Amino acid sequence: MILQSEGNPVDASHVPLFVSRLLLHADFLKFSPAEEDFQSGLSKCIESFQDTVLGLDNLISDSYFDAFTSPVINGKTEEKTCGDGPNLQAMFSDDVHLQNLITQIKDCTSTAMSAATQYSATFETLRDFYKENEALDLDQLEKKEHDVFFFAQSLAKYSSQYEQTLQIPKRQPLGLLLVDTSLLKDLITPSPVRCLQV
After folding, report:
1. Average pLDDT score over residue span 71-78
2. Can you list the alpha helix ranges (DSSP code H) found in the chain?
3. What is the pLDDT of residues 53-66, one digit of tens each?
């Protein structure tokens, strides 16, 4: 049994294959690894599989298989009629089914990252208030005299921001991809707390 971050069991058939962290910068949100990194990694993985297959010696030239490739009939060894065997490199490039599978894998990864990008858009308001809070000069703010309305408004604003940060899930499964927001949450949560302390 696999547990989500909240301790709820997750069906093992729906466990995401990849993990990407959503990182917060003052001006933008970004994923690490990004889609380009996933695509590059998948391409390298596929190439490694192909290189492994191409690295094997052709079995037709192996003397162990001479009984099949050059059989002895009536005491006479027949010549090989099968040639040197298939050119696997050409087979890889000509195999329409294999090329379709590779394209589908890349499309699935793109779709997963598109879903993650849509999910990251839900954090734009949090990024905006983080940027605004970090731009505040808290020392200067603390030295000024303020009326009761300012304190009431600030208390409501920063308390609301803090409550929003507590609602951020540490991990969000999105089909093929698990979005890890723990670093984002750890960075953004102290921001309204600092403002409340002033």
Report:
1. 78
2. 35-54, 66-69, 88-94, 96-120, 124-135, 138-143, 148-166, 182-188, 190-197
3. 888 877 777 777 77
